[in-house]
Amino acid sequence: MAPPRKSKLPKPLPDGFILTDMEKKKWRLGKIIGQGGFGLIYLASQDVNKPVAADTNFVIKLEYQENGPLFTELKFYQRAAKPESMQKWMRSRKLTFLGIPRYWGSGLAEYNELRYRFMAMDRLGSDLQKVCECNGGRLKKATVLQLGQGLVDVLEYIHENEYVHADIKAANLMLGYRDPDKVYLADYGLSYRYCPKGVHIEYKENPKKAHNGTIEYTSLDAHKGLAPSRRGDLQILGFCLLHWLCGSLPWDSLLINPDKVQETKSRLIDNLPDSVQQLSVSGANTDEVAAFLLHVRSLEYQDKPDYQLLKVLLASVERGSLDFSVPQGPVEESATKGADPHTSKKSDKCFNNKQACNEDYCGDDDDEEEKATPIPTCYLRGPPIGPGAQPKQKEKEGLPAVRRSLRPRTVQNYAEDDDDDDNEEEEEEARPEPISACYLRSPPKGPRAQSKQV
What we know:
Layout: E1 18-20, E2 26-36, E3 39-45, E4 58-64, H1 69-80, H2 83-93, E5 103-111, E6 114-122, E7 124-127, H3 128-134, H4 141-160, E8 163-164, E9 173-176, E10 183-185, E11 192-193, H5 220-223, H6 230-246, H7 258-270, H8 274-277, H9 287-297, H10 307-313, H11 330-337, H12 341-352, E12 373-374, E13 403-404
Antiparallel strand pairs: 1-2, 2-3, 3-4, 4-6, 5-6, 7-9, 8-11, 9-10, 12-13
Helix pairs in contact: 4-6, 4-10, 6-9
């Protein structure tokens, strides 16, 4: 039988199917609880003599053997995330928790002449993307900073083990199944070994690989076609923190044009810290995120970041239980008044019970497209427009009304074994210009007012 096309989801294995991993441990499959990318996610159990319980602590990710993402993820766990190595590192840092899911085993299986690859993992709960959707796109500042500190720990660990994640985003951050206060950085299908055998990959721009990643958060390095690096991971994290804190990003309306997104990000970074500080929303200034991104900007491509300093920059609040309730303040009040009643009810339902949003991990929902709706006026950070006023929309003076979906977007894979063309000509980069006032989201100025150029 010809091998199946890699772009298709695998044909499901029957309920109760027994898998044997490379260490001869047996796993029984339960029901499918989700799918994402090219794989299926099953409930699983090590007790093969009875059906898998609904509250089992394990899942198995299953793909066709020929697929690449699960193989890449397996290599990461086998090389960099062995449980004993993680425990030793945590003790050296005096940490009680490190947000990397536990890997339990992997192997190959065959059914009806089709070959599969599988990986057994800890079962996780809902992803942070769903939490953000419940909140209208925002999280409380204390929660954002605590998430940032925990993710810096995760990135320091994987960086010290020669890997970068390269696709940090809310859809890849999972709440613990038993404890939603624990948040895990998951999905290492795009992880990249940036420092094989201790030798950092060289700086080389490749236009064929430009803009790889999830476009909202792609690092400037990735926009240029550079291989992922430590500073790239941290810049992606900085963009995520800014998004969770403010509810949107200055380039949200430009996502169909990667070059424009890159240009806007460059202006934001070139004009730090003012460009980020001016994005502050009611009750939540962005000073810490501005300082974080400013330090990341100072790093060279091969530099080792000062992770402890980055944690200090985000440490203006004490670490405690994560609060995923809806941020309060004038911005949220106006949003509630103009919100769809179904959305408001959903938000109340999500956070009257802390675990109400902690559903099983279901992977990406790319097959179910939702029509993007204009973001409420309150999130645009300008003064309210009067009932009879008509806002001016000029391409050169301001961004169009932001229309975006919070649904995770398709990412492009960075092929680790793809050969570079040594004879490619590098495109000449235009010198970045100061960020325009429209991108700073401060209240609009009068027609004769002059914007400050930093």
